[in-house]
Structures
1.
Amino acid sequence: MIKYQEIANDIRKNILAGQYLSGVQLPLEKEMCAQYNVSRITIKKAVDELVKLGLVIKRRGAGTFVKSIDDEDAKDLSMARQFTGFTETNKGKTLRTEIIKFDVVHPDKEIAAKLQIATDDFVYDIIRVRFADGMPIVIEYTKMPINLIPGIKKDVLLKSIYFYIQHQLKLKIQSAHRSIRAISPNALEIEHLKVRDSFPLLEVEQIAFLDDGRAFEYSISHHRSDQIVFKSVSIRQ
Amino acid sequence: MIKYQEIANDIRKNILAGQYLSGVQLPLEKEMCAQYNVSRITIKKAVDELVKLGLVIKRRGAGTFVKSIDDEDAKDLSMARQFTGFTETNKGKTLRTEIIKFDVVHPDKEIAAKLQIATDDFVYDIIRVRFADGMPIVIEYTKMPINLIPGIKKDVLLKSIYFYIQHQLKLKIQSAHRSIRAISPNALEIEHLKVRDSFPLLEVEQIAFLDDGRAFEYSISHHRSDQIVFKSVSIRQ
DNA sequence: GAGTGGTCTAGACCACCCC
DNA sequence: GGGTGGTCTAGACCACTCG
């Protein structure tokens, strides 16, 4: 449908298929214009997608080149889906969710600030443990304003809140701001994640936003460190 | 110099100065065209920078809106420099580096693959502990091909390898691919980072690239978890 | 239906790299 | 000096939101 995405996909496939090897120069923008029969800006936008993905680099005055990366890394990059919840990232596995807590409370000052709501508004206060193939993977502490996300019940929590938000409420999720740290488990986590007190966890603190710019979720997830890797590509401006 | 960056900066400052409050609609693209006397594509590119930063959202058919974020988060986002080494991120502190190991070796198969070199090429094999204000912050295990980065000596390691690469060798760093995990310290780290064996560390595994697409560094950094937070903004496509 | 941002065009000039 | 990608223009049509 959208030309630049189709072209980006096409080039990406060619790279992954080994059409262009590591370090090799891609066709010039002008040549690709002719090849795909589009304007240069469209080609630029397509190739810029691949730069963001980390597959190629561009040098003014020289050309566009495939990065010198490992096949394994290349696949990683290509599948990189920066934005998915537990349900999506563990597709194909048998998932189970245990609800530890499910209340409605007033947010404390800090959380109210992060969600940009008042301390006398109400938020869900949820704690869940998520299992994949019978193994505990992560414990999630979630706070959501009930005004923005009404109607959550236990059956929603047992499946996927994100699915409910997008398909039942028909809301669109736009972005997430994350902070990542390493921490030690507390007593609750030692019990539910079945780890020892010396077992490190990866903490992901997240504020998630709807496409109208409102924050709809503040969550902290503590992941078993043997079950999660966080990947990122950063490009110098 | 570059118009869209200047405009992006100007709008960013206005948002941070409280000119536009959380949730408020920005002027229309058409209006900004008139205001800055540029074409619409230039305005689009400027505002897209702010979308990437996480400060605003755009909705086709509706307009552009400031995200509902905390002042503190806003500042974080605005300073977000995805790409810096130890020296940059700890500016203003008193830095010290201890060299634990500095050899030249053949890379093993896995590292050769990640750097896209042969196992009979040579790489520096470096281990360093970095201190800020007298406190150990991170231990870095670095491998670099000597062909790409020639002439490293102890005085370079004691300061900043990145500074040497950019200012002495006049090479440009383009990007880094990172994987982040939580781990436990090993004996070496317990000693040098002055932590107990139950103290969690944040591992950052990184492959860094020059602007010609060649990988010039494979490194693993183990950070004291009380001294590092990794931040990220992800936008749904 | 009026108005928004998203995509795309055809063309121009510029900064930069490399020969 | 010849050719690269980077920026920018003026204009067009489209998909979408909202009253």
Note: The longest helix of chain A spans residues 3-16.
2.
Amino acid sequence: MQAISNLLLDKFHDLSDPEFIRDFESVAQIQKVKQGEMIIDYGDFISFVPLVISGLIKVSRTNEEDREILLYFLSGGDTCASSFSCCMIKKRSEIQAIAEEDSTLIAIPMEAADRWMSEYKVWRDFVFSNYDQKMYQLIDTIDRLAFSQLDQKLIDYLEDRSRFTDDGVIHVTHSVIAHDLNVSREAVSRMLKKMENQGMVTLERNSITLND
DNA sequence: ACATTAAGTGATT
DNA sequence: AATCACTTAATGT
């Protein structure tokens, strides 16, 4: 039980309250997910709040016309903002979370996450600041979908994703990008080629490097 | 060696 | 910019 709180403190420094940690240890569960694994699907009843320790999670939503839109990514130190609201009002999930890489999560039972809101200031602050942060990311996403042309969308997308790598190499195929941005694969390939000619990126099979 | 998948390209709408 | 048809290159079995 020592290990799990170390994981917590390593990625979530804001939650370092001794009393909280003790309570946390009694309910938290480590959950490992493999790349491509569906963590939350539409209509799932969410019974826990996930805290992401490592890896990368893609949170997205698909509309009636089967178009998937990317909402945001979660990496170490993040939590799923919409899972809170989902839990609190006992609603089924409106979104989908898929592991983009092998990832490690800590699952907090909804009952505890709820109770902590009134018991621990560190937890409450953490939840709200995270919610706020994710809201801004969502606004960015909306801007991107509504107003940007493909070149800008691509740059934003790549910058967004490169924040989650330490060597600047993004492991992704053109068709995955195309899918995330709701454009054709050919358009992505052509645009990336242009960007490569301008020296902005370096292209390899299955990976893209963003050059400042 | 062969099949599959990723990426590049030109033509058409 | 999307779709189609096709080519080329890399990777897996």
Note: Residues 150, 183-184, 186-187, 205-206 of chain A lie near DNA strand C (CB under 10 Å from a C1').
